[in-house]
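Hey all, sorry for the wall of text incoming. These are the two entities for the joint prediction.
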Amino acid sequence: MSDTTPVIELVDVTKQFGSFKAVSKASMAISKGEVVGFVGANGAGKTTTISMLLGFIRPTEGTVRLFGKDVTPQNAHRSHERIGYAAGDMELPATLTGRQYLDFLLRQSGTKDRSRLQALIERFSPDLNKKFKNLSRGNKQKVALIAAFATDPDVVILDEPSSGLDPAMQEAFLELIKEVQARGTTVFMSSHYLQEVMSACSRVILMKNGQFIEDVDTKQLMAMGGKRITVKSGYRPTKPPKKAEDVETTFENDLLTLSFVYKGDVSELQSWLAAVKQLKDIEVSEYDLEETFHSLYDTEGDKV
Amino acid sequence: MMRSVYLKTLYDKRFFLLGWTLGFMAISALMTSFYPAMHQEGSISSLLESMPAAFKGLVGSLADLTRFDTYIASQLFDIRMPIIAGIMSIILGIGISVADEEKGELRTLLSLPVSRTKLLTQRWLAMLTIMVVIGFGMVAGIYAVLPFIDIASIEPDVLARLSAMTLLIMITFGTIPFAVGLATGRRSVATGVSILIVIGSFLLSTFAQAVDWLSDYEPLSLLHYFPAADIVKNGIDLKDVAVFGVVTVVLLVLSIAFFRARDVA
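and here's what came out:
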């Protein structure tokens, strides 16, 4: 595998269950060291995509590659030697304790050095002595995350990894992502928490109805946010500027409140503001990230 | 302790192993302890002789009850043990194959560097080990009671032959749900096919003795290849061993082929 070969690659991948297309013509490439977020609503096809990456299921069409090699259910275990995986709803062996499972995991992967495991245990402080069937969801999730990183893998694939973690543990998890990224580990993570994705990832892939609708740099996504402008005026016929989006208008006590998202040229906004009659108040704030995302999701999703 | 899928499976099934071993031990001990009564009651033989053919099938072959080896062959190994072993094997085969997938634990295992072939073979070997231990339990049950019955004795090689064939039929019975379960991932299919074969074999072998047209189909029953009374008298027929061997190997090979290629939910 050359340095330029994508570590994770999907080429025109489709997965069909009966007549239902869970994933349709999906393509992407992730290079070594990238931390890529994978975002979409429930049922968008994220878990199906991850299941194909791990070789749990076969694509109906297209090719899945890890480290430059095609992944199939028959050979997936070979790539798993270099992969760590955790999922929010991961079912860990009910009859084992966390300690027994981590021991089993390290033996299966042939990892002899336990210092990494020890460091992760100290970081997340899970209860390792209870059987999984008696363990809380948060504790199970901690063990699953430790297992994903314990073998110091080249690629970590995470499917909604921090669901069930308390805020302090979520923070510890994000720190861990930053640390492994600095070491050159590739991370591909799906998440419902956009804030988590934005703070951990350098790139975001957006999925809707089985299709990748957007593959965007995180900084670009942030820039797409624009500003939310809220203007109060005593002049009722006031109209928003031409480039205004997501406009909301209310009129109460002879006062018009006009709120909109503005992503255009600031000087144009300035001119528009100067022309507003009976201006009483102005409020400018960063457009909420969630709103940016939903706006993008709805706009791009409609094209699907 | 958790070095491999094999050891993990044994660990997961430790209570099953203990319970069924004690159960088999108790059944064989009980059947052995009944021998003096059966032996002394000469009229039982004539009673059995007077029974309808279908009923004879249910109580076992009409072997000579004056000898312990033929008694234990007909009353324990001929019908009762294969049926109990069949039930145990179905429960075990299902538990080791589809139960993990239904709980979602199979995906967790498959996310590790463990090949599907390795996972399947190690689990099958664990099932085999459990059956061997249970088989020893069955033999131990007989030997636990035998010293207290003066009139009963059995040559070790005779008991070894009967036990070996019981183990063989257990393995075949267990491999059916195991293979179907891993090949399809569906408990209903695995259970249905297994019950059809195990209970079907039992019914076929039982009623073929009374229903003329059924007797032509009796070789389709797996129990046909476990003639306990003949094993005591004439030893093991290698053709019978071959039938169990071929069925087991074919099922295993097919399950590996299907399990390696299918989607895991």
